[in-house]
Amino acid sequence: MTEIIWRPDTPVGPAQGTGKPIYKPEIFKTIDSSIDALNKELRELSLDIHSHPELAWKEHRTHDVLTGFMSKQGFTVKQHHILPTAWEATYTHGTGGRTIGVNSEMDALPGVGHACGHNLIAIAGVAVACAIKSVLEEWNISGNIVLLGTPAEEGGQGKVPLLEGGAYDEMDACVMCHPAPGPPHSASLSGSLALQRLSVEFHGHTAHAALAPWEAQNALDAAVSAYTNIGLLRQQLKPSYRVHGIIEGRDWAANIIPDYAKMTYYLRSGIWAEVVAAIPRVVACFEAAGLATGCKADIKKVNSVRELRQNKALGDEFANVFESKYGLIDYKHGIASASTDFGNVTYALPSIHPGFGIPTVVNGGNHTRAFAESAGGEAAHKAALNVAKALAAVGVRLLTDDGFFNEVKNTFEEDKKIREAI
Fold it and tell me: Where is the Peptidase M20 dimerisation domain (predicted)?
């Protein structure tokens, strides 16, 4: 049977779960009502971000809009936190207590805007933080909330310098979510791919392309040769690997042999250890191209991200709440074949990053103009808030249930042993 992917014309009713018991349903009512009360403002915030897309490291307007919103919600806001366009919004109730972390991504993609739905990720993070704040106040629970505005997920891996700069140090766990094609009213607890980004510059020598081509070292030929080498290597790589990239030039002209070419390449696989093992083979493709053409190959490893390691205890609790209230959980949709810098966060502390289905057209998945349009839709907005409610419930349980907190820590340590043994 073919699985149904949520299309704009798919006849579906409202989200509906199984109704099975969840942890402290009276507290979930507070989560539900607090996010519903903010629905109009969150929708306006999402559309504002969506209509003003900003690229990695340039999210200045989005930074100001989100920090202004969080200040109005009673959070203590730190602008330009560690990075120029990152920010932190914190709230503490009572004394002591544990700390739940939340992430809001902000950046868009060149030419296609919010084609990965970061406007939805941003407002989902805001909704989670605000809902947990309402619970702490209404039920007089001691605890701390840290919401990070994280820039440059697309290509810049902004969470990595934030992690290295201590932005996650006080968190006991961290949560966020991500839209993608999937079944109606569904969420996914799939993983993602680890990634190593490579930057390669070929330096040669120019010459007149007709008068004296023998005087040159052709940097474009080096890039084309490397491109071909990698194409041949793919046959000897496991199907789980992805190797892909682009060639760029500078001051190219058809009658001048180029003395410069740049390649930006991504190497991905399901686990970081596999990426590490394949890096020398891919690097050899670039080195051989430089040797064959007489060009200098300047090869640099820039930005790496780990695969998502969904914390089992956090994931099981999220699945229980989501299935009870909204719909299906799967383990194959979401961003299973993509990569995210949140993978590095999952290596550092217990974390979850569920995906959630939104209505998409055929061939209109992430990183397309059609997906950007989908991410601005009303149904996508509602889906984001449903996931936010379930994530807020997970956060509240972490803050209030000692047994659950210990289970979260234990499953993190168990997974750490597994990945270190690979």
Answer: 199-269
How many distinct helices (H) and strands (E) make up the chain?
12, 14
Residue whose structure tokens are 């064959």: 292
Tokens of 352: 């979850």
- The pLDDT, as a whole number, for residue 155 is 86
What are the start-end ranges of the H helices in 11-92?
A: 25-37, 39-51, 60-72
Q: In what order do the strands lie in the sheet with 143-150?
A: 76-78, 87-93, 143-150, 99-105, 173-175, 351-352
Give the DSSP H or E segment for 409: helix 402-421
pLDDT digits (tens, 9 = 90+) for 321-334: 999 999 999 999 99
Q: In whole angstroms, what is the distance from residue 187 CA to residue 325 CA?
A: 12
Identify residue 361 by its one-letter amino acid code: V
What is the number of other CB atoms lying within 10 angstroms of the CB of residue 295? 27
pLDDT at 174: 98
pLDDT of residue 422: 80
State pLDDT tens for residues 150-191.
Answer: 999 998 999 999 999 999 999 999 999 999 999 999 999 999
d(CA 59, CA 153): 11
Single out the residue of 159, 176, 223, 182 nearest to residue 392, CA to CA: 176
Half-sphere exposure of 330 (CA within 13 A, CB side): 19
348-386 residue pLDDT tens = 999 999 999 999 999 999 999 999 999 999 999 999 999
Distance separating alpha carbons of residues 225 and 241, to the nearest angstrom: 21
| Residue whose tokens read 């891919």 | 282
Full set of structural domains in the chain with CATH: 25-191+308-421 (3.40.630.10), 194-305 (3.30.70.360)
Up-side HSE of residue 246: CA atoms within 13 Å toward CB?
2
Are 358 and 335 a contacting pair, CB within 8 Å? no
Residue 317: Cβ within 10 Å count: 25
Give the global pTM: 0.94
Give the separation between CA 190 and CA 352, rounded to whole angstroms: 10
- Quote the pLDDT of residue 1: 37
As a three-state string, the secondary structure of 242-306 is EEEEEEEECCCECCECCCEEEEEEEEEECCHHHHHHHHHHHHHHHHHHHHHHCCEEEEEEEEEEC
